[in-house]
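Exercise 3.2. Students should predict the tertiary structure of the chain below and write it as structure tokens, then compare their answer with the key that follows.

Predict this chain's 3D structure.
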Amino acid sequence: MLDRLNQTMEHIEDHLDQVVDVAELARRAATSEYHLRRMFSALAGIPLSEYIRRRRLTVAGAAVLAGHESLLDIAVRYGYGSGEAFARAFRAMHGVGPGEARRTGTALVSQARLTFRLTVEGSSSMRYRVENRTAFTVVGLKTRVPLVHRGPNQAIIDFVRGIGTETRERLEKLSDQEPRGVVAVCDDLDPSRAEGTELDYYQGVITSAAAPEGMTALPVPAGTWAVFTTSGPVPGAIQELWRDVFTEWFPSNPYRSRPGPEILRTRMAPGGAEADAELWLPVERDTAAKG
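Answer key:
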């Protein structure tokens, strides 16, 4: 998998002055566009589209300082429809406009070219199982929240705190399928997985019952799910599990992520500082992987 990702990085470098087709990148990585975006964001810590944009502006910055081409020619070569659009993007990354950068020879920001390497640690094993599930329905309360990779998500905290005890008890009575009890469900995430992008967030249950008045139903089609478990401080242990699944488990197993909701069941320990968690992710066999 890492070899294929590095071949994909080479393709990006060779086409920075052309349209970079994500479908072609996925073909070279022998995976789906959806999984490529997820994997790249988890491994690199930056969305794929943002990496490509920053690499373009890095090499464009070198061309600006070299002084051999007009600023408009550089703008057009790296995909900008006008000098103004190029200047805005250039300033956003480098902190200075291209004209001023050329006149003063100021230092610019550089996005390093990425190469993926295997680091052998073996310090822990990941507990998981794979389940094939028939179609089911999530029923609960829904809101729209920003994605937060590290630390508390205040929007989620405020939403959950606003759910009354009576409503939560009504939800719990509807639960009749695994994972049992009230669960957190994330759906309709931005493909980039960038910090601050929005997603649908549910506090709900997995049930065969119809949605009561005032609640929302999310139908989930049949499919395969990878189920991961962890225990530890919240929210750190859960956020680290999410990261480890994409940086360690997927590269080591013949599965890839597929579109669908992500389900988290959390059971708090006495005191509220730690929890047992179970993370359900929609997956499919990676036909290009061995195993």
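Discussion points: Residues 146 and 196 are 5 Å apart (CA to CA). The chain has two domains: 2-104, 127-285.
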